[in-house]
Structure formats: C-alpha cells, structure tokens
Specification:
Blueprint: E1 2-4, E2 7-9, E3 16-24, H1 27-38, E4 43-50, E5 57-65, H2 68-80, E6 86-87
Antiparallel strand pairs: 1-2, 3-5, 3-6, 4-5
C-alpha cells in the first residue's frame, strides 16, 4: 500500500483498465468528448443512468491507462471538456 498525505491507498499496477463516470446534458456531446480525448485507443462507453426528466445522462467510460500520469491526463481532459459537467 502507498501512503499519500496521511492516507493509505492501494497501489495500482499499470497498464490497467480504468473507469470514469462522466455526466452531461448532451449524449452526443459526451460521446464526441470521449472520442476526442481517447482518440485511437479502444474504449467502452455505456449509459449508466439518466436523470428523472432526462436532462442529464451518466456514462461509464472504460479505457486502458498506461500510467498514473496518463490516468490523470484523461481525467483532466474530460473535466475540462465543455460537454462534460462532472467526472467521477
């Protein structure tokens, strides 16, 4: 286990499959965002939920990440994309 700022966390062995939960108002925009960010890598994107009135959709985006830097870069790129409201 690795200790980060007083917290203990499990070490991640890279490369590995990683899942991001992305939420936004426009399904097509979220799909485009994933394609632009992941580019030529293989990924899987599955609808996980829609809000009660259908205003927001949540998708699980799964991709193989090569390193912690790559994992964080994908997270930051998703977070800063205009179509993506929230990344978990």
């Amino acid at each position: 286990m690795k200790e980060l700022e007083g917290r203990t966390s499990a070490a991640i062995d890279y490369p590995c499959s990683w899942s991001y939960q992305i939420i936004g108002a426009d399904e097509d925009g979220l799909r485009r965002a994933a394609g632009e960010i992941i580019q030529d890598r293989t990924y899987r994107m599955v609808l996980s939920r829609s809000s009660e009135k259908g205003k927001y959709q949540s998708f699980q985006l799964e991709v193989v990440v090569e390193s912690e830097g790559h994992r964080l870069a994908v997270y930051e790129a998703l977070r800063s994309h205009p179509a993506v409201k929230i990344v978990l």
